[in-house]
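Lecture notes, structural biology module. Today: joint structure prediction for complexes of three components.
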Amino acid sequence: MLSFFERVYHVVCLIPRGQVATYGQIAAIVSHRGAARTVGWALHAIPEDSETPWHRVVSAQGNVTPFVDERGVNIQQLLLEEEGVDLNSQGQVELTKHQWEGLARTEIDALRRQWQLMP
DNA sequence: ACAATGACATAAG
DNA sequence: GCTTATGCCATTG
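The predicted structure, tokenised, for the full assembly:
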């Protein structure tokens, strides 16, 4: 039985390069609707050497995290731009262009079965 | 067991 | 547009 965090990481790894997903989207897959906050918590807990593409997760408005490094550079924005995801003047991802379509019902069900989640 | 925390979401004013 | 308030849920102290 994978922990909630591990499930989050698993799903985040499914987000294709050049696309982004919202916290709510992830939450809807790994748990019930409403676990969005915990998803954020899970991402916050990601070790830096992890290969999980956490930068492909943004808020429902397309906002990236306010986290910046010592030089004030927004890591997430940088990583996204490297993948060809453009942000508007307000530093938001254009969800209409880059939002991940998510998983098909059948795929979600398969994952849930794999995780032994009872809906 | 309980309260607090969090990189959220949604609805209402 | 904005600011609140409320719901949500796993983890941690």
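Point to remember: Chain A has a mean pLDDT of 89.
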